[in-house]
Design goal:
Elements lengths: L1 H29 L12 H18 L2 H10 L3 H8 L7 H16 L7 H35 L7 H4 L19 H16 L4 H17 L5 H24 L4 E2 L8 E2 L8 H4 L1
Antiparallel strand pairs: 1-2
Helix pairs in contact: 1-5, 2-10, 4-9, 5-6, 6-8, 6-10, 8-9, 8-10, 9-10
Amino acid sequence: MADRAAREGRQKRRAGQAVQAYRAAWFSLAGPHVLSDHRSWTRSMTWMALAAVLAVLATHLLDDDVTLFVRASSSPLIRAMAEITDIGQSQWYLAPAGLLFIGVALLDWETRTRSGRSRLAFLFGQAGYAFCAVAFAGIIGDIFKFLIGRARPKLFDHGGSLHFQPFTATHDFNSFPSGHSTTMGAVAMVLMLWFPKARVPVFLLCAFLAVTRIAARAHYPSDVVAGFALGLLYALFLARWLACRRAAFRFRNNDLLPVARFRLRARSPARAR
């Protein structure tokens, strides 16, 4: 009975700590903008958005030719790309991020050392950021899908690449922007923030995975460019918005990309002794 009571007490205490962690996160985010020297959206990001619009318009010129090429192709590379396209499904990233966010909050923070609490704070903040970056970018993409109602390539013979039926929630008319590509754009920015030294290969890999939607005959090239840019920019905006509130990220000088807070540096050899 005593062991059972002690176990129940620990469970209640952890549940209370989780509630406190979520409340603290909520109040820190709901507060006003606290860093007047920085902005969530910058002029550079506006130029990036305009460049993305121009890229969408430019790739639209290739939509018809690329679609016809993919349909007629029997290339093993295109078949292989189509096989791996589901890597871009959002659940592969939402599920682990959400579970980690909840699991870390349920741990006993009070018994941890200062460095241990810093590690938990890092995991808690970054898991929450990754979940929100992918989830909300996808929601924004779904809104555009509904408003624009672009037909998918499988309906190409019925109206070409400019076949639209706005305010339609059916799968056949939600091609623009690509949801998988939006996810990969958000994932690209998350990983670029986590691994600054690997930004170029991370960007190229995620962009390649987004392009597999063309090989799968699920989207036009302009759908992919629009979705990838949307996910990338939203994830960057969210990271900067959090940094303005000193949550999960912080600014370093005038860099466009913020850096993660609570990052623990490796102990130097002198300190290790």
